[in-house]
Amino acid sequence: MIEKGVISQGQFIILAVLYIIATSILIGPPLFVLAAKQNAWMGIIIGICFGVLHAWMYGILAKRYPNKTLIEFNESILGKWAGKALSLLFFIFFLILTSGLLRIIGDFITTSILTDTPIEAIEVTFMLLLILAVRLGLETFARTAEMVVPWVLIFFFLLTFCLLPEIEMKNLFPILEDGINPVIKATIYSLGVPFSDLVILLMIAPTVASPKKIGKALGIATFTGGFILLTIVLLAILVLGANSIIQINYPIYILAQKINIGNFIQRIEVLAGAIFFISAFIKSTISFYSTVVSFAHIFQLKKFENLTLPFGIVIISLATVMSPNIVYFNNFLSTTWVPFAVIFGSIIPFFLFTIDSIKGAMRNK
Amino acid sequence: MFYSIIILFISIGIGLLEIPKLLRGKLVRESLFYLLILSIGTFFCILLALDINLPNPVNWLTILFKPLTNWLNFT
Fold first, then answer.
1. Which end of chain B offers a freer environment for a tag, N or C, measured as fewer CB atoms within 10 Å?
2. Is there a contact between A322 and B38 if contact means CB atoms under 8 Å apart?
3. Any idea which of A43-52, A87-96, A226-235, B52-61 has the lowest mean pLDDT?
4. DSSP string covering A83-126, please?
5. Confidence bin at A289 (pLDDT 50/70/90)
């Protein structure tokens, strides 16, 4: 393990919660609603159950290899060469995840807030922030997360309470008009967008002071983050209606524009933007950190902080190349990204878990 | 053309700033990888600045995951 910092369990939970809500509250609602219309919320509830199962599986893996990151323990499970190959695949996954996140942040700012600014300017500025955060180390940004999480919660509750008068219950009906299949599809989407990505937290799991309780911490985080996501999706369905969500890129932003209390408190959509910026900063920092650390592990380098600047340049070019326009990118998210993330977040860890259990049972005989 | 020269200068500046530090700490392997990744990144950024169409890795992923995607949309 290269990282020398130690974070507490509470900080780990906060990082995980912010990691879950970051992109899912922004790009999640249109995806889920596209799959299951007004029944999307049921899909998310099932998704949370699966998320907790994932957390339990990751927790057991982290417990068996308390001092090893994901990249290191898959080498000790699969052997040197197969492990290295799998680690390289994980590295590519992290790289694409980081560039995609940068792209989502850039797209959101250029379409909603700074409409005349070129996207590259925003990506470069944000990348400099990420480089700074990773160079200062895991402990520093865990404390940053601890400092900013109250604001996310305050803005979230403010948004929720201000939207309660706008709710129309008729938007929730009819329930299950097309049977159960669309709900299952929404569940798969919810696995792809927030819950499977949690596998990346195994990269920082060994730095937690009590590695035996990772499973519990991840479970709590999945539950909290899932609850926030569920509330946002339910509010979007209840206030805007399923048919109009599909036509909007960022429902949470439009949702916050709807707030109007006595013609006095209006246009507080930047609060919704703030929830996203704060959590997206944490999420992209974690994924950028994991990209660099996994690279350093694979090629057995002694330091990873120095690699942040060159990787920043690579990620900026990848973020520009990967999406010619926002329609293409949204299409990529709703089709290819979901199976891609589910393979890396659910299926590969499940195989690692099974192989490791069989090996453990054979050793005990 | 102008932007690509600026990018080249920035990258050379970054390299000159950081690689000597790594070499002073006797981290030869690290500095080689540093140089490699920095050149890859600079190369792609310069191609982008010159408006040359680069192959999109996301397209390859889309082709690779086509069967799974189709199956997902079918159910």
1. N
2. no
3. B52-61
4. HHHHHHHHHHHHHHHHHHHHHHHHHHHHHHT-TTS-HHHHHHHH
5. very high
By residue count, chain B amounts to: 75
Q: Does A339 touch chain B (CB under 8 A)?
A: yes
Select from A313, A323, A340 the Cβ nearest to the Cβ of B65. Answer: A340
Q: What angle do CA A11, A16, A21 make, to 5 degrees?
A: 130
- Residue A15 has which token pair? 């990082």
Domain boundaries, chain B: 2-74
Q: What is the average pLDDT across A324-349?
A: 86
Selected residues 8-67 of chain B with any CB under 8 Å from a CB in chain A: 11, 14, 18, 21-22, 27, 29-30, 33-34, 37-38, 40-42, 44-45, 48, 54, 56-58, 61-62, 65
Which residues, other chains included, contact A282 with Cβ-Cβ below 8 Å and sequence gap of 6+? A15, A18, A19, A22, A141, A144, A145, A148
Amino acid at A159: L
Q: Determine how many CB atoms are found less than 10 A away from the CB of residue A188.
A: 20
User: Would you call A175 helix, strand, or coil by DSSP?
Assistant: coil
CA distance B25 to B27: 5
Q: State the complex-level ipTM.
A: 0.90
Give me the residues paired with residue A260 across strands.
A266
| pLDDT tens sequence across A215-244 | 888 899 999 999 999 998 898 888 888 888
Residue A145 has pLDDT above 80, yes or no: yes
**What mean pLDDT value characterizes chain B?**
84
Per CB-CB distance under 8 Å, the chain A contacts of B59 are none
Tell me the CA distances in angstroms from A292 to A129, A233, A306, one per residue in order. 15, 33, 9
